[in-house]
Amino acid sequence: MLPYNQIRLYLFSPQDVNSLENFDNWLALLLTHEYTHTLHLDKARGASSGLRKVFGRGAGFLPLFLYPNSFQPTFMLEGLAILKESADGQSGRLNSNYYKMLIADEARYGSMDLGYASHSGSYSYLYGAFFYQFLLEQYNAEKVQQLIEAYSGKIIPYRISATSKQVFGVRMPLLWQQYQQWLVSKFGDTPELTQGELVDASADNLAFYTGLQQPPVARGALVWRQVHDGHAQPYLAAYDNNRNELKRISTERIGIFDVNALEHVVITQQRYRADNRLYSDLYLYTNNAWRQLTYKGRYTETRWWGNDKLIAKRQHNGRGELVVLDTDGRLLQTLWQAAPDQVIGRFTVSVSQGLLVAAIQQQQQGYQLYQLNLADGRWLQLTQGTGIKQQPQFSADGLRLVYTSDQDGQYNIYQLDFSETVLKQQQLTKVSSGAFNPTLAADGALWFEQYQQRTRQLLRLPGSDFAEAQLLMLAPQLVSWDRSEKPALPETILLPATPYQATGSLWPTGWQPGLSVNNDATQLMLQTFGQDALGRHQYQLLAGIDSKAESLFGQFSYQYSNTYSLYLEREIEHYSLQQQIYQSIATDRFSFYRLNAVTGWDDKLNLHAGLVSEQFRELYRDHAQLADGYPGLQATIAGVALLFNNCQQFYHNNGPSRGRRLLVSAEANGLGSDFSGNVYRLNWREYFHLGQSHVLQLKLAGSYGNEHSRTVRLGGDSASEPLLATRRYALRGYADNLALSGKHAAIASLQWNIPLADLQWNYDTFPLGVNRIYAAAFAEHGRLWRRSTATVAEEQLSGVGIELTTEFTVGYRLTLPVTLGLARGLDDTYGENRAYLNINLAVF
């Protein structure tokens, strides 16, 4: 939408049962969904359309009045896109048995009220999809179109209820009640069927929020499972046959894993790298430590092949591959490469039988199970017919294979028996809410996950309790993957490839004027921004003129990828006495950074270099009020900063949960600077997770400069922490006072972050909600050294206080933390009792 309509697609097809598995042509479904968003969000009538003719696509706050449809709850935006992706009656989430399972669970145990649905991120997709289906069934398609048209003409945003009244005759809260009643009547009468003995249940609905599922693994007498509740670090837990937890292995992130007979663990981990790209690599756990096997890979799943080799699934040149690696991550062999229209889902390996079974999706077939003979490379198709077959898992002896399928309309666990010459299929579970991620333990019991009441429960089902189901005889078929047998593709027009040119999409597409009038001066401003199609080049510009100083001012920022950063600013400040300006000072700031010049230690260690300059000069002086002029001042430094950051943030925390962030920098004054010498700075933060989202934060920071370097200050309730040229360290309980400045400074802080509530709530469709509420208690101590001609004076300053932060959601999607703090400075001279309010809103 901004700065222009653009669809950016990740062509990586879904490979598991996670609500996106119901597709025939993934690219077609993806384009349909995203193009619906483009048409919907860009649609405007009346005054909004007229304003666009003047201001283009807008900048600053103007888009608030230019794109009416974008200012709706997420469930109304995503629901419409899901409705369109499902229009063929077969593909898409509305036709998915997984989505029907989720909404039936909501109807059975109590659906969300309008406030939660307006706020909730992931559940907005689910509730939005069936909301539009409700509108189609209870009203009609014409009413849905009227809803879109009516809201497209609302120049005043967030008028959800008024539009509902206009189109449906009832305001949105009453319409939502009708929707809830419809859900109960359509899905709520499904009987609850459960099986198995509970091992544990996820503490919350993280599996739904993240879309990530980690199947349990049976190895020897143990069954392993990854646990992640969003409050603490994920870990692998090993259970015995009596469901007792015996072992734990911490993992940095969640991912699909496997365990061999030596209890060595291999796991996939997704991570954004310093080049701003998302990769998925393999990590090996041996000798009580994790070791990275691959770097900047696209590995999504791996299985042990004995104790010294791995079979992994990866994306390579846009196609799925099955490859063999050694335990150092070296590629030994490519077993098979999928065709462009094939998707490799989950797979399993039997070492004893020399077989690999994978769920493979092809157009007009859905996910079916295929068997690869690892000795001769031949494929057999094991299953056919309707329904998705996914998540296969061999038993230890390789004679049985369990998997999940929705072939009867509900996801249940099935088994294939290879022990005889005829392949037999048997249904093992009969649950109403869905059974997933099966594995067979050494004692013959089935371990699986059941979705119920927004949680994934790990269950153990003894073999004696398997569902009584008729055995079906299957006839596997040899597969040649002969592409000539595929139906002819529609006529395709191939365009010649051309090198990417960023300049064609860099020009700004909109602007916003601004006016500031006060007793000192009148300022006229213009604001715009832009980026190229790939988002590598991004810039923002604010330019203005000051009537009193008769001078230009403004800001310009530019960033290229995660590599270069440029910032220019001119700020004009007026000083007055009895409403008469006697002086105007211009501050010119310049910074240029080479970011991530050197990276290492799994991209946790990064070296940055930069040049920072600040110049002060007089623009205006009333000689009658101020005889002496301002001599001006320039401070220019060049420096390097080494940053180590291995912090982790758990889902329910408001900031870093554990780890270390250490910044060390060295700066040299020069290039016309009025200061000289070097300055060395340290900023060290350590985070200790105390459990249930409680975090203890330790901070040590400071700077050391020589006699002719620029001073640094202590004080203020908050302060920015740039890579270079830190001018002030916050010390709560003390004002930002020039008296508290010196050549050397240090500060130590101990803070306890305390979660109070996780509400995730809106009031109906009012565009203001609350995410989380948390508190903090802190104690700080600062030291300041002032240098005179022959002596060094030292100040020691301490403070204590508390903070209460409410994390608001503005406009359904913008997170706005608001912190109210009370701090007491304990120094008799400079200390104060201070109350402060910090609003962390990023504005240009």
From TrEMBL:
Pfam families (UniProt xref): PD40
Organism: Arsukibacterium ikkense
Gene3D superfamilies xrefs: membrane protein fhac: a member of the omp85/tpsb transporter family, TolB, C-terminal domain
Family of the protein in this entry: Belongs to the TolB family.
InterPro entries membership: 6-blade_b-propeller_TolB-like, WD40
Protein name, per record: Bacterial surface antigen (D15) domain-containing protein
Signal peptide (residue range): none
